[in-house]
């Protein structure tokens, strides 16, 4: 009897451990695109990947609003050709299997925890991190929560969270640029606005994207609940009281970092970009480009070169 009870205990322990651990399930095809599906609790994330068979360091690429992991397709292959193992997830709300209904589920901390779960699923003990727009906000959280996991960090467009918070509160220029946020936080109205007339207002945002990319983006946002989930990032995090367990102390950063910012960005002004350096205690540089918000589409040669240079500078093992 004791042996039977012991065997049952071992079996239950194993099953529970498997339930808690994120795992890679399978490859899936969606609209002729290939994804790896990753389970994290009840959520299933669709991830683009490249070079997973390589032996080099890992790189995670985080998209923002209203884009998907497709924004990274060219950079994915550039990095993998240099020996890196690269993933670009469709983040919480953008993956069909990762759209919880509660607004609180879209806190920055929850989404940052998704990044750690994805890293664990791919056995990335450490990784280089790149983010744009909301992906940058999540990246700043990742760096704040577990800096020891991040080999290098590239933020695009969005400054350090304390720098943005200061500009949002005190800088008139940034306040003007951020007026759209109040609209995005309204219930159901922005969903109607963006989906009106076959999503014409959403398509207008993608004016720097190729027709192919616009179609891929639209395929995601036409899915049930996708637009609401993407807007919930604003509703959960800006001008909202964040619950104690979801609060993050965005302290000074020691991870080697760079901020790539376009001086014609319609949403993010100079004050936050220039203040970011005040919170950097490790290697840091600000790269100012004569570009707008959609940096990867507008200035791909300059952006990709800066990202690759930064990653290679802080690569600890020789990629093969």
UniProtKB/TrEMBL annotation:
Domain AB hydrolase-1: start-end pairs: 58-296
Keywords, sorted A to Z: Hydrolase
GO molecular function, one term: hydrolase activity
Leader peptide range in chain numbering: none
Keyword Manganese tagged: no
Keyword Nuclease: no
Name the record gives this protein: AB hydrolase-1 domain-containing protein
Species name: marine metagenome
